[in-house]
Amino acid sequence: MQDKYKRKINYLRVSVTDRCNLRCFYCMPEGGIDLKNHKEILRYEELYKIIKSANELGVKKVRLTGGEPLVRKGLVNFIREIKGLGIEDLSLTTNGVLLAKYAEDLVKAGLDRVNISLDTLKDEKFNEISRSSSELSQVLLGIEEAQRVGLTPLKLNVVPIKGINDNEIEDFAKLTLDNQLIVRFIELMPLGESYNWAEEKYISISDIKERLIKLDNLISTSEIKGNGPAKYYQFPNAKGKIGFISPISDHYCSECNRIRLTADGFLKPCLHSDNELNIKKELRNGVTQKELKDIIRDAIFAKPEKGLGINADDDFDLNQRQMSQIGG
User: Binding site annotation covers 20?
Assistant: First the structure.
């Protein structure tokens, strides 16, 4: 269906948990977040009802996020159930730590592909960024296993941060020369933990492109299967591709096709707004399927024309949730 600005909304991002096995410094506080208790998190049967209703309204693309979605027990069976609804593109965003363990089961359950968030190719820096004892080798093994079982096109999401990992931009891009990977550079957004320092650490997509052009020509290429606003390029004769996502310098609000569902049961029409709709309350009050669809319609019609603070005239209000609580 369309929102009031005539944008076609066909994509739902679903956070299945607020828990994560990493503590990435730009995503959550070092001590973690105040986790919701079990009763506050949507049950799988509740998630299923919401996705089913959204599907009947025209949502054909679903992405499961977290926190880290692979830490939630029963996820594989849940994927099998929602794939049975006729979801055309069912994907998952993960930090990759547990991916090698679950990759084969995920593809058998019906998952189409994965995106892996990875901000460094260096062991020591990985531990610094993630503030964990998990090893980079676990993520690299997950990438290898995901490719082996066919969870493709496989995308690596990289957030370049000045003074942290900006000296690895070229290294990430070079991965595409001999690998059928899609490396996507995403501008740092002022959300949650990064709100107070994002401006000074921000690197624009134009600056990244300028650096990569010094390596070789960047050739504009066709769109990649997926749901996002990335613009894709590749080096001559490269096996993989490079994507650029610019929510700050060249926002894509006019093309936004998504709404989000948080793990604790709130529909978020826009990532950059605090406006939320409590769908869990209605579910647990015995809402009918028709009423559930009406609630989702209301959320879609509540989508703003543009995100606050994203190259907009509005004042940017501090988002009350950490990125790990939203699901990206």
Answer: yes
> Is 268 annotated as a binding-site member?
no
Q: Is 14 helix (H, G, I), strand (E, B) or coil?
A: strand
The answer to whether 155 is annotated as binding is: yes
Average pLDDT, the chain: 90
Per the DSSP assignment, residues forming a β-bridge with 13 are 63, 260
CATH of the domain at 173: 3.20.20.70
Number of domains in the chain: 1
**Model-level pTM?**
0.91
Q: Provide the token pair at 300.
A: 């879609």
Give residue-wise pLDDT tens across range 213-223.
Answer: 999 999 999 77
253 in a known ligand binding site = yes
Annotated ligand binding at 228? The verdict is no
Nearest one of 27, 18, 95, 17 to 322, comparing CA atoms: 27
What is the share, in percent, of the chain residues with pLDDT greater than 90? 74
Using an 8 Å Cβ cutoff, are 96 and 143 in contact? yes
Residue 106 domain flag? yes
**Does residue 254 have a known ligand-binding role?**
no
> Quick check: helix, strand or coil at residue 306?
coil
State the angle between helix axes of 99-109 and 136-149 in degrees (0 to 180), rounded to the nearest 10.
Answer: 20
Give the range of the structural domain holding residue 310, as residue numbers without chain letter: 11-326
Q: How many helices (H) and strands (E) does the chain have?
A: 11, 12
C-alpha torsion 271→22→87→302, nearest 10:
-10
24 is in an annotated binding site: yes
Q: Is the pLDDT assigned to residue 179 strictly greater than 50?
A: yes
